[in-house]
């Protein structure tokens, strides 16, 4: 087990290095930091001095190594736009995005899995058909449109929920949370639904397809022949066997939720990393963009590792060596 | 036999069972007028070609026909009590508790994500109301009984940690753990190595005898039948062609189809130049001929076979659904079939 985790971490290192290379390349090819920092009037001596101070006269690999070294210590330099350390900016914004992503994933799982089980078990009921139609809408409507429609209905027409922002937040050390105040929770509802909608419908369809597959298997038939209750068969034997693919997709989707919260955050003016990123793109604030890119890569790599570990928990066949005698 | 004699009467009594599948092109009748009894402790072998309705008869008895298949007629009685009309919830309590089932492929019959112990425990607890501790003790006992070495450790193993033969032993323990009065074994050895088959059959035979469990053994392997069964039912195109004591049916089959089936088993004691089979193929369910379903392939066919469907007719120690044995028929069975 420890060897497995170690090997996965070793595999992650080249991935992170490649991503680091891309973010580093942005400094060289997206705009010229020297030109940005010098402004309109400067002398050649000032320019050479600045190039030297920034280490831009060093060979490429030395510069890259310096970048990686600083990044490892959480140092991504100063934001061009806000003139504050990038790490500080991101630490400030991360709680908002992570809370939003967590709630969205929760909505997607808690609603998507039961709906998937239901539509798998009662294929032909009218409710299943209604769920499937609904899921088609969820998959095909773009996120920003869902967000705008929700704002229109629940904020503008009904006036129940706020249309933007996080509401009141409570500071827990460096972490600011909106989960502890009523207005914070209310502010979370619409963005969570908007962000989780696509994942919800995806998970529902996946669980449904897997349930249909599993319910046809011999071991489910045999479980029925053993006289087990429907509850034990459907929610124990069947659902557990659908979990491996569901965990894979749900895990990758969680990465997606964090990375692509950008649109939802923009629609709801949510003060998270996505909004920070969009604003940085507008201002060509390369240090922030580079740090964001690296952070998202780290999130994906971490989630992949967790997903692999969850497989081990769910499926005993993976626990002893790969390719052990399997039934399939 | 009086119906109100559950102790002396048959364990299972199937009467005129008819199973149909509604399809877009009309209703297919997969089982048509199947009748047989199984006495307490008796092993009834059911043989026939693929698609003859052997497995479907078993599925109908345990109430697990694949939809849209349904029982369209006849009745199934377990110890005199009618079970084919029971609601699903009542039937569930009978499955596993009174009727155990063994399936063909042990590699796919066990849930891969649960230990064999857990599967045994949940089955016993569903029917016998045992405490966790007691159920676990019994689970280990059952694994020992079906011949799994180091059962106390293996009880916490997952199915994939067992070989095919060992898994079938686990399946057998699962079928028997709530001590049913009848076991429906659907091709229990077909998916196994030949060397393992004999062990599994011996195990089934021994356990059925020890526990006094009656068994319906579905197979297409005449060797298994000859070795295990007390009586045998030969099925053809969803009907029973012949039923009788295994010795009589194997040595002196009366129905021309059973005769053809027995003749197609290669003898081991002498060389044969040409292996005999039965000409033609079993009809599709949508095209079963009128009269006797076997008539287009029958070497002894005569006019009556093409119009009238024969019922089972007593002949010697067996009963055959064949007009050759009706004294009123214009053609009588040839010497060869009469004496085998």
Q: How would you describe this protein?
A:
Chain A is mainly α. Chain A has helices at 2-29, 33-38, 44-53, 60-72, 86-121, 126-140, 143-157, 182-215, 218-225, 230-259, 261-267, 273-282, 286-314; strands spanning 170-172, 175-177. In chain A, helix 6 (126-140) crosses helix 8 (182-215) and helix 12 runs antiparallel to helix 13 (286-314). The radius of gyration of chain A is 24 Å and the shape is globular. Mean pLDDT of chain A is 84; it is low at 321-328. Chain B has helices at 54-61, 88-94, 106-109, 116-128, 132-145, 151-154, 164-176, 194-211, 222-228, 246-251, 256-263, 335-339; strands at 12-23, 26-38, 43-47, 70-78, 81-82, 99-102, 182-186, 214-218, 231-236, 239-245, 313-315, 318-320. The interface between A and B is medium-sized, with 27 and 35 residues.
Structural features:
heterodimer, A: 328 residues, mainly alpha, MetI-like fold, 2 domains, 13 helices, globular, B: 340 residues, alpha/beta, 8-stranded mixed beta sheet, 4-stranded antiparallel beta sheet, disordered N terminus
Write the layout of secondary structure elements.
The complex is a heterodimer of chains A (328) and B (340).
Chain A: H1 2-29, H2 33-38, H3 44-53, H4 60-72, H5 86-121, H6 126-140, H7 143-157, E1 170-172, E2 175-177, H8 182-215, H9 218-225, H10 230-259, H11 261-267, H12 273-282, H13 286-314
Antiparallel strand pairs in A: 1-2
Helix pairs in contact in A: 1-13, 5-6, 5-8, 5-10, 5-13, 6-8, 7-8, 8-10, 10-13, 11-12, 12-13
Chain B: E1 12-23, E2 26-38, E3 43-47, H1 54-61, E4 70-78, E5 81-82, H2 88-94, E6 99-102, H3 106-109, H4 116-128, H5 132-145, H6 151-154, H7 164-176, E7 182-186, H8 194-211, E8 214-218, H9 222-228, E9 231-236, E10 239-245, H10 246-251, H11 256-263, E11 313-315, E12 318-320, H12 335-339
Parallel strand pairs in B: 3-8, 3-9, 6-7, 7-8
Antiparallel strand pairs in B: 1-2, 1-4, 4-5, 9-10, 10-12, 11-12
Helix pairs in contact in B: 4-5, 7-8
Fill in the CATH topology of the largest domain in chain A: MetI-like fold
> What does the largest sheet of chain B look like?
8 strands, mixed
In CATH, the architecture of the largest domain in chain A is: Orthogonal Bundle
Q: For the largest sheet of chain A, list the strands in their spatial order.
A: 1-2
User: How would a textbook summarize the main sheet of chain A?
Assistant: 2 strands, antiparallel
Helix content of chain A: over 70%
Give the helix tally of chain B: 12
Query: CATH first level of the largest domain in chain A: which class?
Result: Mainly Alpha
Give the averaged pLDDT of chain A, no decimals. 84
Mean pLDDT across all amino acids of chain B: 88
Q: Which structural category fits the helices and strands of chain A? A: mainly alpha
What structural category do the secondary elements of chain B indicate?
A: alpha/beta
| Weakly predicted, low-confidence segments of chain B | 1-6
Helix amount of chain B, in percent?
A: 25-40%
The tally of strands of chain A reads 2
Q: Strand portion of chain A, in percent?
A: under 5%
Uncertain ranges of chain A = 321-328
Name of the CATH superfamily of the largest domain in chain A: MetI-like
Work out the number of β strands of chain B.
Answer: 12
Radius of gyration of chain A: 24 Å
């Amino acid at each position: 087990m420890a060897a497995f985790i170690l090997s996965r971490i070793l595999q992650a290192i080249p991935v992170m290095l490649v991503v680091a290379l891309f973010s580093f390349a942005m400094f060289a090819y997206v705009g010229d930091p020297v030109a940005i920092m010098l402004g309109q009037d400067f002398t050649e001596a000032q320019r050479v001095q600045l190039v030297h101070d920034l280490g831009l006269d060093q060979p490429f690999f030395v510069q890259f190594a310096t970048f990686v070294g600083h990044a490892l210590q959480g140092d991504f330099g100063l934001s061009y736009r806000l003139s504050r350390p990038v790490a500080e900016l991101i630490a400030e914004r991360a709680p908002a995005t992570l809370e939003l992503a967590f709630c969205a994933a929760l909505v997607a799982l808690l609603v998507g899995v039961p709906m998937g089980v239901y539509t798998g078990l009662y294929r032909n009921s009218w409710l299943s058909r209604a769920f499937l139609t609904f899921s088609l809408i969820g998959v095909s409507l773009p996120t920003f449109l869902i967000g705008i429609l929700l704002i229109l209905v629940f904020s503008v027409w009904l006036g129940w929920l706020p249309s933007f922002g996080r509401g009141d937040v409570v500071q827990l050390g460096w972490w600011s949370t909106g989960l502890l105040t009523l207005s914070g929770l209310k502010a979370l509802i619409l963005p969570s639904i908007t962000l989780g909608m696509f994942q919800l419908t995806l998970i529902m369809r996946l669980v449904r397809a897997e349930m249909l597959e599993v319910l046809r298997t011999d071991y489910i038939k045999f479980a029925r022949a053993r006289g087990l209750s429907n509850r034990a068969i459907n929610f124990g034997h069947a659902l557990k066997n659908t979990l491996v693919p569901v965990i894979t997709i749900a895990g990758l989707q969680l990465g997606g939720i964090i990375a692509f919260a950008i649109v939802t955050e923009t629609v709801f003016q949510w003060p998270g990393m996505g909004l920070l990123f969009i604003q940085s793109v507008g201002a060509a604030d390369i240090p922030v963009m580079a740090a964001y890119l690296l952070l998202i890569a780290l999130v994906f790599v971490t989630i992949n590792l967790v997903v692999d570990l969850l497989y081990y928990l769910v499926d005993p066949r993976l626990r002893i060596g790969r390719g052990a005698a399997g039934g399939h | 036999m009086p119906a109100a004699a559950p102790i002396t009467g048959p364990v299972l009594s199937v009467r005129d069972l008819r199973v149909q599948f509604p399809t877009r092109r009309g209703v297919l009748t997969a089982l048509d007028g199947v009748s047989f009894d199984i006495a307490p402790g008796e092993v009834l072998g059911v043989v026939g070609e693929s698609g003859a309705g052997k497995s479907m008869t078993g599925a109908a008895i345990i109430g697990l026909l694949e939809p849209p298949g349904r029982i369209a007629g006849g009745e199934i009685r377990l110890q005199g009590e009618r079970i084919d009309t029971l609601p699903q919830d009542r039937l569930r309590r009978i499955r596993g508790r009174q009727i155990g089932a063994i399936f063909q492929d042990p590699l796919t019959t066990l849930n891969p994500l649960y230990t064999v112990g857990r599967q045994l425990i949940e089955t016993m607890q569903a029917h016998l109301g045992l405490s966790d501790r007691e159920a676990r003790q019994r689970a280990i006992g059952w694994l020992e009984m079906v011949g799994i070495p180091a059962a106390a450790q293996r009880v916490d193993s997952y199915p994939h940690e067992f070989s095919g033969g060992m898994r079938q032993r686990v399946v057998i323990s699962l079928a028997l753990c709530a001590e049913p009065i009848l076991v429906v074994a659907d091709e229990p050895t077909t998916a196994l190595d030949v060397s393992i088959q004999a062990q599994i059959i011996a195990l089934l035979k021994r356990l059925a005898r020890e526990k006094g469990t009656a068994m319906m053994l579905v197979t297409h392997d005449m060797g298994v039948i000859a070795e295990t069964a007390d009586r045998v039912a030969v099925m053809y195109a969803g009907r029973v062609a012949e039923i009788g004591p295994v010795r009589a049916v194997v040595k002196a089959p009366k129905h021309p189809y059973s005769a053809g089936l027995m003749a197609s088993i290669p003898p081991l004691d002498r060389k044969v130049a040409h292996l005999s089979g039965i000409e033609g193929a079993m009809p599709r369910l949508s095209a079963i001929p009128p009269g006797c379903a076997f008539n287009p392939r029958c070497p002894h066919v005569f006019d009556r076979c093409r119009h009238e469907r024969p019922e089972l007719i007593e002949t010697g120690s067996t009963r055959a659904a064949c007009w050759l044995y009706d004294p009123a028929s214009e053609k009588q069975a040839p010497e060869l079939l009469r004496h085998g």
